[in-house]
Design brief:
The complex is a heterodimer of chains A (445) and B (235).
Chain A lengths: L15 H13 L4 E4 L11 E3 L20 E3 L8 E3 L3 E3 L9 H14 L2 E3 L7 H6 L2 E6 L8 H6 L2 E5 L11 E2 L6 H7 L7 E2 L9 H15 L6 E6 L3 H10 L4 E5 L5 E5 H6 L4 H14 L7 E5 L5 H9 L4 E4 L1 H7 L7 H6 L24 H4 L4 H25 L13 E3 L2 H7 L21
Chain B lengths: L7 E4 L5 H9 L10 E5 L16 E5 L14 E4 L15 E4 L15 E4 L12 E7 L13 E6 L15 E4 L10 E4 L3 H14 L10 E5 L15
Parallel strand pairs in B: 1-2, 2-3, 3-4, 4-5, 5-6, 6-7, 7-8, 8-9
Antiparallel strand pairs in B: 9-11, 10-11
Classes of the chains: A alpha/beta (445), B mainly beta (235).
C-alpha cells in the first residue's frame, strides 16, 4: 500500500511486514507457520549466465542435432538403477500436505514425460503408486506409514535426513489436515497438530546411517537405489558422509526448497542457498572420486530450464522440483485471485499450505476442496511444464555445443555478482576472477 | 513361542548374511520351504533375519547387531543372546524374543506383533511405536516410549528419564519406578480392563510370574495435541 505523503519514511528494519509480524506474535503467542519456501532474495542461478558458443566453441544446430536428456540414477550398488528420460524429478511431497488428486496428478505428469515422483511424510498412497511409473519412497524420521511391502513396491528409496526449508527440523502437519485417512495412515488421532521428530528413531550419525542403509538393502534384496536427502547446510561434509555411508544418490535441497508447513523463522534463516550447495556437493563428490558414480540431485528454487542447465553445468546429475510443480498444477493462479483474497491472501502470495483451505484443492485434505482439482488436467499441465523445462535446458545446452545436457560444465558459466562467483566458483563475467581462488596458475579464458 | 529343534541351519561363519536373508525372503507369498531355521555364529551381524514375511521360526544362536528382525512380518525370531540397536524396528506382525538385553531403540516405530526382551532394554525403547506390544522383563533406558503413537509398552523393572515424552495414544505399564516422566506423560488409573490386558500380555510374553496388579499405567495427558500458547514451555 503506497502513501502519498512524501515526507513519511518507512524504517528498513521495522518495515510494515516486520511490524505486522511483531503484532501478530504479540496477539497469538506462537511462531508463524506457513508453507512455500524462502521468500527473501538469495544468490541463485539468476546470478549466473551461460556462455553460448561462437568462434572458440561451436554450437549444435538447434532442432536438428541431438541433445540427449536421459539420466540413470543409482548405478553404484543397486541391481535396478532408475532410468529417467529427463533430468528433472518431482520432489517428495506428502499425502497429507497434498490432496490425493494432487498426488495423483504429480504421478501422471511425471510418468507422461518419463521421470520419477516421490512420496512424502505419511506413506505411499495407492493413487500415487498406480499413476507413477517410477516412484521414490521416502524413509523419514516419523516413519509414518512405513512398511516393507511399500519398500518393495517402490522403485527407489530415499532416506530423508533433512530438507532445505528446515534442516535440523522435523515435519509438521497441523490438525486441520489430519483427516480420517491421514490419521489412519499415520497411526495418529484425528485433528491433532502433528509434529514429526527431527532425528530418525533408530540411528544417529554417519556410522549408524551406513548400517541403516545396509538394512534397507537387505530388506529390498539390493535391488533398489538408495538416495540420501539432506538440507543444505554443511553440504561438503554431509555429502562426503552420505557417500561413505553407502548412498547411491545424494539429494541436496537448498534453503529455497519448499515446505507444506514450517516455522517462518526456520524457512528464512536456516541453511544455505542452492547455488553454493551444488558447488560444495560436487566438490565433495569429486574429492572422493565419486562424481557421476554417486549421482547428485539438486533441489530448491528450480523454476526454468535455465535453472536446470546451470545446476547441471555445476555438476548435478538431475534436479528436483516441488513448489514449481505445484504452481504448474495451478497453485497461485491469477484466475483464482478472488478465492485467495477470501482467505486473506492473494494470487502470487498464497503460502498457507499448512491451513488446508487451498481453494484449488491441491494443499488440502478437505474432500470438497480436493474434488475441485482434476488430476487428469493437473497431470497434463505438469507434463507440459516438464517438457518446457526440458526443451529450455536442451536449447541452452545446444547453444553451448553439448550433445547431452550432462556435458554442460562450469566452464560454460560466468557470474553476474561477486557473491555468486564466490559461491559457484565461476568467474565474474568479463573477468578471470573467482573470489577465493588462487589465480597464480590459472590460464586466461 | 517354542521353536522346534529340527531346523534348517545357516552358519554365518561360512555363509554370507545376504544368502540367509535372501532365502528367508524367498519364502514370502507362501513359497514352500523350511519353516524352522537356526542361525549360528551371528557374531553381532547387522540386519539378521530382517523383513521376513512368512510363517517361520528363526532361532539365532548368539548376539546380533543392529536391526535384527527389522520390519518383521509373521515370523517368530528368537535371539539367544543380546541384540544391538533397532531390534525389530518397524515390525509389522509376528514375534521377536530376545533372551538377553537389547540396545537402544528396540521396537522403534513398530506397527504390530510382539517384542519381548527378557533382559533390559536401553534408551528409546518403543520410540515412535505404532501399534506393537513390547514387554521388557527388566528395565528400560531414558526416553522410552518417546512419541509413542499406539500399542503397549510393558516394563517389569524401572524406566529412565523422560518416560513417554510427547506420547500419543500408546499405553505404558511400568512395575518399577520412572526416573522421570517426559512432557505430556502422566500416570493414569489402572482399571480392571488394564489389569486384564496386562495379564494377557505378560502371559503371551512368557512372563507369567509377575503380578499385573503391581504395575502402574502411564499415558498422554493430551495437552500438547494442538499448539497452544500456554504450552509453549513444553514444546
Amino acid at each position: 500500500m503506497a502513501t502519498d505523503n512524501w515526507r513519511l519514511r518507512e524504517s528498513y528494519l521495522f518495515n510494515r511486514q516486520v511490524i505486522a509480524e511483531i503484532q501478530r506474535a504479540a496477539r497469538e503467542g506462537l511462531y508463524d507457520i506457513r508453507g512455500f519456501g524462502a521468500k527473501r532474495r538469495l544468490p541463485h542461478f539468476d546470478d549466473l549466465l551461460l556462455l553460448g558458443a561462437s568462434i572458440s566453441r561451436y554450437p549444435l544446430e538447434g532442432y536438428r542435432e541431438r541433445c540427449d536428456t536421459d539420466v540413470v540414477l543409482g548405478t553404484r550398488f543397486a541391481k535396478r538403477p532408475i532410468e529417467l528420460k529427463i533430468p528433472i524429478t518431482i520432489a517428495g511431497m506428502s499425502f497429507g500436505a497434498l490432496s490425493a488428486p494432487a498426488k495423483e496428478a504429480l504421478g501422471r505428469g511425471a510418468t507422461e514425460v518419463g521421470t520419477s515422483t516421490t512420496t512424502g511424510d505419511g506413506g505411499m498412497t495407492s493413487e500415487e503408486r498406480e499413476h507413477s511409473k517410477t516412484l521414490v519412497y521416502q524413509v523419514l524420521p516419523s516413519r509414518y506409514g512405513l512398511n516393507p511391502d511399500d519398500l518393495r513396491r517402490a522403485d527407489a528409496i530415499e532416506v530423508v535426513v533433512g530438507q532445505g526449508a528446515k534442516p535440523g527440523g522435523g515435519g509438521m502437519l497441523l490438525g486441520y489436515k489430519i483427516s480420517d485417512r491421514v490419521a489412519a495412515m499415520r497411526d495418529l488421532p484425528k485433528g491433532i497438530d502433528q509434529r514429526s521428530a527431527s532425528r530418525h528413531p533408530d540411528w544417529t550419525g554417519p556410522d549408524d546411517l551406513e548400517i541403516k542403509i545396509g538394512e534397507l538393502r537387505e530388506i529390498t534384496d539390493w535391488e533398489k537405489p538408495i538416495y540420501v536427502k539432506v538440507g543444505a547446510t554443511r553440504t561438503y561434509y554431509d555429502v562426503q558422509l552420505a557417500v561413505k555411508a553407502g548412498a547411491d544418490v545424494i539429494v541436496v535441497d537448498g534453503m529455497q526448497g519448499g515446505t507444506a508447513a514450517t516455522q517462518e523463522v526456520f524457512i528464512e534463516h536456516v541453511g544455505i542457498p542452492t547455488l553454493p550447495a551444488v558447488r560444495l556437493a560436487v566438490d565433495a563428490l569429486q574429492e572422493l572420486g565419486m562424481h557421476r558414480q554417486v549421482q547428485l540431485i539438486v533441489s530448491g528454487g528450480i523454476r526454468t530450464g535455465a535453472d536446470v542447465a546451470k545446476a547441471l553445468a555445476l555438476g548435478a546429475d538431475a534436479v528436483s522440483i516441488g513448489v514449481a510443480a505445484l504452481i504448474a498444477l495451478g497453485d497461485n493462479s491469477p484466475e483464482h485471485d478472488a478465492a485467495y483474497r477470501e482467505l486473506g491472501s492473494a494470487a502470487g502470495f498464497y503460502d498457507d499450505y499448512q491451513a488446508g483451505l487451498d481453494p484449488l484443492g491441491i494443499s488440502t485434505q478437505d474432500a470438497q476442496l480436493a474434488s475441485r482439482f482434476d488430476p487428469l488436467v493437473g497431470g497434463r499441465r505438469l507434463a507440459n511444464y516438464l517438457r518446457v523445462l526440458t526443451l529450455e535446458t536442451q536449447t541452452l545446452a545446444r547453444a553451448c555445443g553439448k550433445s547431452h545436457v550432462h556435458n554442460l560444465e562450469p566452464e560454460d558459466l560466468v557470474a553476474l555478482t561477486v557473491e555468486a562467483a564466490a559461491m559457484a566458483r565461476v568467474p565474474l563475467a568479463g573477468t578471470e576472477w573467482i573470489p577465493g581462488v588462487d589465480h597464480s596458475s590459472s590460464s586466461p579464458r | 513361542m517354542a521353536i522346534a529343534s529340527a531346523a534348517e541351519t545357516v552358519d554365518l561363519a561360512t555363509a554370507p548374511l545376504r544368502e540367509l536373508n535372501q532365502r528367508l525372503h524367498d519364502l514370502a507369498g507362501g513359497t514352500p520351504g523350511p519353516t524352522h531355521w537356526r542361525v549360528l555364529n551371528p557374531n553381532g551381524a547387522h540386519a539378521v533375519a530382517c523383513a521376513v514375511d512368512a510363517d517361520v521360526e528363526v532361532e539365532i544362536e548368539g548376539h546380533v547387531g543392529y536391526y535384527c528382525a527389522g520390519m518383521n512380518k509373521r515370523a517368530t525370531v528368537r535371539v539367544h543372546g543380546n541384540a544391538g540397536p533397532g531390534l525389530a524396528e518397524n515390525m509389522m506382525s509376528g514375534a521377536v524374543l530376545v533372551d538377553g538385553n537389547a540396545s537402544q531403540s528396540a521396537g522403534a516405530s513398530a506397527h504390530g506383533g510382539i517384542l519381548v526382551v527378557y533382559g533390559d532394554a536401553s534408551a528409546r525403547c518403543g520410540i515412535s511405536m505404532k501399534g506393537v506390544d513390547i514387554v521388557v522383563r527388566g528395565s528400560v533406558g531414558h526416553l522410552s516410549g518417546f512419541m509413542a503413537q499406539t500399542g503397549r509398552l510393558v516394563v517389569c523393572g524401572d524406566a529412565g528419564e523422560a518416560l513417554g515424552d510427547s506420547i500419543y495414544e500408546a499405553r505404558i505399564y511400568l512395575r518399577g519406578e520412572p526416573a522421570g516422566l517426559g512432557a505430556d506423560c502422566i500416570e493414569k488409573e489402572l482399571r480392571a480392563e488394564h489389569r486384564a490386558e496386562l495379564a494377557e500380555l505378560l502371559e503371551r510374553a512368557g512372563v507369567g510370574d509377575v503380578d499385573p496388579g503391581e504395575f502402574r499405567r502411564f499415558g498422554s495427558a493430551r495437552q500438547l495435541y494442538n499448539f497452544k500458547v500456554d504450552n509453549v514451555g513444553a514444546y
